[in-house]
Amino acid sequence: MKKFDLQAKNVKKYIKIKKRCKNITLFEPKSATLLLTKFRNGDEMRDIIGHVSSVETMGTVDGPGVRYVLFMQGCNLRCKYCHNPETWALDGKALNITPGTMIRRILRYKSYMSKDGGVTISGGEPLLQPAFVTALLKLCKFHGMHTAIDTAGVGIDHISEILDNTDLVILDIKATNEESYRNITGHSMQRFNEFLKILDTKPCKVWLRQVIVPGINDTEENVLNLKEFAKKIKNVEKIELLGYHTLGVSKYEKLKIPYPLSGVPEMDDKKLEKLQKLLK
Ligand code: SF4
What we know:
TIM Barrel
């Protein structure tokens, strides 16, 4: 009788997992019990290693509520205003960690997360480590946490699966046309456009962000174009303009990389406020 009860309890839990994790094909169970144990501990994912540049345990700007924020290593873009050049190299100085170990660290902070808080995976570009990010998002969903990714939408693989386990996409819109996009990032918009097509098929909520740089995109025309562009994206809850700042300059000096915006002043707050109003 006891055995039967245990099994019934596990089946109930199994159904719960299925609801939380929309796609669990990576972790196909031999039995519900095995799935529970292995999934909870991340044991099925021991061979996946994530490269994490740094973490913030009580973040308040990268998604709703109080959040555990991971900044992943690796980015293929080279935005002129990037203030995190130390995250560019995938094999840069990083914490190398499995999803199981990572979720155990995150769970220590779960009680500090506000009701609407959760976990945000940022970067660098989180989409460049699809196996780790997918596994970690699934574990977060399993443990009942809200999930967000902060991305420029330039990924390589598993994008659909990542979005299936993401509640909120914080999407960095570098530019709305090919020429400006290339000017700012040094790359074509093609991958970003492919990401948008996949995003369009998902129910994720979306926050849009754009960094505004004096002399590059601080015009009313650019902001109105962004407003139009946003209309083509589903479930947009807000659009935020972020003023360019020079806090990253010393990192370039340390890494001996020439700073592309040398001499460009920080964005004026009043002008930024005025531009932000155009988005209402
Ligand atoms: S996408 Fe982000 S991390 Fe990558 S270069 Fe641009 S600003 Fe830096």
